[in-house]
Amino acid sequence: TPHGPMLVYDWVPGELLGVPRAQRADPAAPFLRFKSLPLPRVVDALTTVFRVHDRLEANGWCAGDFYDGCLIYDFTDQTLHLIDLDHYQPGPYRNHMGRMFGSDRFMAPEEYRLG
User: Fold this and answer.
1) Which of 9, 17, 52, 93 could be a cystine partner for 71, CB 3.0 to 4.6 Å?
2) Residues 100 and 64: beta-carbon distance below 8 Å
3) How far is CA 36 from CA 29, 69, 77, 94, in A?
4) Rounded Cα distance, 101 and 87, in Å
């Protein structure tokens, strides 16, 4: 679009891995169920994340506001889907807002400072 990318996603089966902090200790939460998967499955999912970001970087895009709330995992098919990448920008870019969107757990120091 004239104002940046607009992403339209197909519906995918699965569960959002990002859950509110209060639910992170719930064994039924997708977050903990994903963390308890066998290591090869977790590595496969992370490989998907790395491949997507490698392709985006190769095309000049920088990640913005990426966290577990951008991940849908299908526990039946063992497939990871990335969503909500609308804060990605052609890079490099400057911080024009001060503290940027996102969780402190995933933010780099430059995401806190204007400029």
Assistant:
1) 17
2) yes
3) 11, 18, 16, 37
4) 9
pLDDT in tens, 2-40: 887 777 888 999 999 998 888 889 999 999 999 999 999
Instruction: Give pTM, 2 decimals.
Output: 0.79
Q: Identify whether the C-beta of residue 23 lies closer than 8 Å to the C-beta of residue 31.
A: yes
The radius of gyration computed from the CA coordinates of the chain, to the nearest angstrom, equals: 15
User: Which 3-state string (H, E, C) describes 31-73?
Assistant: HHHHHCCCHHHHHHHHHHHHHHHHHHHHCCEECCCCCHHHEEE
Q: Residue 82: which of 17, 6, 21, 3 has the closest Cα?
A: 17
Residues 6+ apart with CB under 8 A from 54: none
Q: How far is CA 57 from CA 27, 50, 105, 106, 115, in A?
A: 35, 10, 22, 18, 21
3-state helix, strand, coil in the chain (%, to 5): 35, 10, 55
Structure token digits, residue 109: 């120091």
